[in-house]
Design goal:
PLipase_A1_sf; four-stranded antiparallel beta sheet; phospholipase activity; mainly beta; 2 helices; Phospholipase A1
């Protein structure tokens, strides 16, 4: 997904004149974070929280690079240009009032180590940065579906439309990721993020429904993500579209359409629509539509 940059401000005094410098914090937002009220097809309504941050391991830019008079906002703050960083992305669903006991179900745990190289150029076709990462992705669940008896239980749940059973199915994988960003969100044609995954350890095969005994894995659904982001103006909203493809191409693709009404408002109202598989990692083969509304957390 699209990543972001954040700044941290401090107020030192130099030569008896109060100045304000723009420091780059080592702890920054990574992917967009949000909290939404979501209703997915074939599931109860839930509060979904998606959060993502990174910690810079490489030295941060010079904190004295930009200065303004005290009390005024920083302009043109230095940014995270390049280097090593750790990242973590998490996601959970809180079924408050829609399921008995209101469980909180972990959906994504995604730590990783990355190196980013930045080339800030203008134009839609200009390479902004290149990112290389080593990542782990899992759902934090414990129900394995490996033995014949476990496969039979999963098939029974599928036949009975017991979607709650699949919330507990364990999924885990490791992969190398590469991501590039072209253009800028405020440009006429917006910005394009392209991320590819190269799996070297994948989850167990799907053993239920029409996917049973067909060697179906996550790589059939998620190896390439294309995200286009366009900001409509300083006070206007921001639109993004994500298209996710696997090794089966259009047969298993999915779409996400996001709209942020305005990043300048007190309440950063946000809507999100999903179509296709990958609504949850534990049951990623299931095609679903979902609609959500809530807040997007912008730096």
């Amino acid at each position: 997904m699209a990543t972001t940059d954040a700044v941290q401000r401090s107020e030192p005094t130099v030569n008896a004149h109060p100045l304000k410098t723009c420091d780059v914090s080592r702890l920054q937002p990574h992917e967009p974070s949000y909290a939404v009220y979501q209703k997915a097809e074939g599931d109860e309504a839930a509060l979904r929280a998606h959060y993502s941050f990174r910690y810079l391991l490489s030295p941060v830019p010079d904190s004295d690079a930009v200065e303004t008079e005290s009390g005024k906002p920083c302009i043109y703050p230095p940014r995270f240009e390049a280097g090593w960083y750790l990242k973590y992305t998490g996601e959970f669903d809180f079924y408050a009032g829609s399921r008995e006991s209101g469980p909180v179900i972990n959906r994504i745990s995604n730590p990783g180590m990355h190196y980013r190289w930045r080339q800030p150029l203008d134009g839609f076709t200009a390479l902004r940065w290149f990112d290389l990462g080593l990542e782990h992705l899992s759902d934090g669940q414990t129900t394995e579906v490996r033995s014949p008896s476990e496969a039979a239980r999963a098939q029974q749940a599928y036949d009975e439309d017991d979607h709650k059973f699949f919330d507990s199915v364990s999924r885990g994988m490791n992969f190398v990721s590469t991501e590039v960003r072209l253009g800028n969100t405020v440009d006429t044609f917006g910005s394009l993020y392209t991320k590819a995954r190269f799996y070297f350890h994948k989850d167990t095969d799907v053993t239920w429904g029409p996917w049973a005994n067909k060697d179906v894995t996550i790589s059939d659904y998620d190896v390439l993500r294309l995200t286009w982001v366009r900001r409509l103006g300083p006070q206007a909203g921001e639109t993004s579209i994500t298209w996710t493809l696997g090794e089966q191409g259009l047969a298993t693709d999915s779409w996400d359409l996001d709209y942020l009404f305005s990043a300048q408002n007190r309440w950063t109202l946000y809507t999100r629509y999903h179509h296709g598989p990958l609504q949850t990692l534990s049951n990623y083969t299931q095609e679903r539509q979902s609609l959500a509304i809530g807040l997007k957390f912008t730096p």
